[in-house]
Amino acid sequence: MTVQPYPPIAQRTTPPGRLAALFALLILVCVLPALAIAMGFSLSLPLPSAAETLGTLRGAFTHSTLLMLGGILALSSATLSLARFLVRRSALTSVISITLFWSGFVAIIQALTVDGALYAARDIENYIPFTWTITRHLNALLILGAGVLLLWPRRQLALLRPGFMLGVFALFGTLALTLLGLASYLDLPQTTRPDAILIRPWDLPALLIFALCAFGLFPRIHRRFRSHFSLALWLSILPLLAAQGYLIFGSTQIFDAAFNAAYGLSALSSAVIFSGLIFDYIRSTSQEQHLLRTISERETRIRTMFDGAAEAIIAFDNDGVIELWNPAATLLFGWRVDDIVGRNITTLLIPRAHRPYFTDQLERLVTDRTSRNIHSYALGGPFEIVFLHQDGNEVHVELSLAASGPQDEPIFTLFARDLSARKQMQLRMTQMDRMITIGTMAAGVGHEINNPLTYLIANLDLIDEAEDQEERHHSLESARQGAERIRRIVDDLRLLSGFQEQPRHKVSVADALDVALRMTRQLIQRSASLHQTIADTSPVLADEPRLTQVFINLLTNAAHALSNRARHENRIDVHLLELDDQVIVEISDNGPGIPLDIQDAIFEPFFTTKPAGEGSGLGLSLCRQIVESFEGSLTVESQPGKGATFRVSLPRYTPTSSAEADSAPPRE
């Protein structure tokens, strides 16, 4: 099952048709009071029959009810906006919560004022229009300022501070109480002109500000924040705009139909915002539930993959403390998850000789991640290393590393694959290739042994025939030299045929090359002349038998490449030199060369150009694997008709080499 990502609310857009329908519906609601007035409805709430004749009381009751309703909705919206701000720290909710708080607070105070709960107004006919005018202007200016701040990114940071919001709340609350309190005792100017076209001209500036917000600022705010909440804010300006229109052009006295329509539309504006917030919370909750389900499903999948992975997966922090350990790691290293989590990976799993190398790989990964400014994760490897089993045995593994999390405190994930079977296979392939090589050189080795053996027997016969002591001593010394030559040949054969790999140690490349030249001398002499340039070089970190095998294979291949021509036409050159920090061995021949189309394939396992039965196709593949295990390289340069040059490059030994293992036992 493919989980489709649920888009954040901020990225959703309302379809144009639905948006147009919302605007049309809201405009219709704003026009309905005008139709009702034209049909003669008073738009006042009904009162008990005993007070039916008290029109002023009915109007006051309607006015107070609408004010209280609008104020309660505004304060409720302000509370929801504040809660949303505390969760999301959005500049939009910060500004709107302040505006709604102001609007709701003032509306409730006005309602209480009209009922005489707080103040006793001296001129109720002018008090209500005047306080409406003052509060509408302040409300319009506050909405305009909020819109400007929301479209000015540099100023939005201040809006995200709770202290800033509380300060604005206190300021506007104090201002509202002060203005409404003073208006109850002062002689107020006449704000209503029943016979003029603009019945309430003082409200015209607020109308223009609301128009600017409705058609200029809030559409841009909605495009920037793109949510149901921002859409509700935009729509809420329309009832405020319509309310101003009813008062300016239709209300000739307080509590008439246009007056009540204006206050009803003002309450509708708060209801639109409140509905938008509720709808936004419903959609947000739905989204969060969907995301929780998605996260749960993904966690289940990740846990299934983690537990069922064939590779060992280990996660540890920057201090090496293990945090995650999967079942495959238990199978590979023996430790149970309860016994290993919380302990240090370096001290438990990595042999002391390999710890510097492992640490270098981690540092290289961190450095690469920092230099490339990667904030998610970075990968390193694969590389081969030796780990420890719980029982103390060594386990050859191939590692890949990943780093994620903060740059200063990364979390590392290690993926380990058991190489024991592959190592055994490589060891068997190496041994098989050695046996093939020894078999190929059997005749030459027999000749090498036969010469000193004949020399030995002849000198032993001379001892029997010698007449004086000096002659016997000379013959005995010559026989000992012949036996020493035989011993060296047998020693070289035993070195080459050794089955077990030795730990890497300091090796003289000249000594390994000398053994290879002695083992292949008869084969080379039958087909070519040999030319050597052997320089005094630094030692390298290697396994001497396997390095010797590499040179034997390369020399044998060179001799075989020349076997179809006369001996005097053929030449094999061997060069040993040191260049910079590399010890280099070049083995060249002047044979037919290697075709360009197969130069990349000659190092692949089982690839051979020799007739069936004369080659295994493993020699060059194993040679490259052996050289690369010594952190070196094996390359070839060849042009058809101009011979071939195989180049072995090995890093010279330095006392700080991190890969140096314990020294191998000396050759006997």
Automatic annotation (TrEMBL):
* InterPro entries from the UniProt entry: HATPase_C_sf, HATPase_dom, His_kinase_dom, HisK_dim/P_dom, HisK_dim/P_sf, PAS, PAS-like_dom_sf, PAS_fold
CDD domains, alphabetically?
A: HisKA, PAS
Q: Where is this region: Disordered?
A: 646-668
Residue ranges the record marks as coiled coil: 459-486
What EC number(s) are associated with this protein in UniProt? 2.7.13.3
Q: Which Pfam families match?
A: HATPase_c, HisKA, PAS
> Could you give a GO molecular-function term held by this entry?
phosphorelay sensor kinase activity
Keyword Manganese applies: no
Q: Which residues form the Histidine kinase domain?
A: 444-654
Q: What is catalyzed by this enzyme?
A: ATP + protein L-histidine = ADP + protein N-phospho-L-histidine
Indicate whether Transmembrane helix appears among the record's keywords: yes
Residues annotated as domain PAS: 298-369
- Keywords, sorted A to Z: ATP-binding, Coiled coil, Kinase, Membrane, Nucleotide-binding, Phosphoprotein, Transferase, Transmembrane, Transmembrane helix, Two-component regulatory system
Q: Which PROSITE patterns match?
A: HIS_KIN, PAS
Write out the GO biological process terms.
regulation of DNA-templated transcription
Signal peptide positions on this chain: none
Looking at the UniProt entry, the stretches that span the membrane are 21-45, 65-87, 99-121, 127-152, 164-186, 198-219, 231-249, 261-282
Q: Which PANTHER family match?
A: PEROXIDE STRESS-ACTIVATED HISTIDINE KINASE MAK3, SENSOR HISTIDINE KINASE
Q: What is this protein called?
A: histidine kinase
Task: Tell me which species this is from.
Answer: Lujinxingia vulgaris
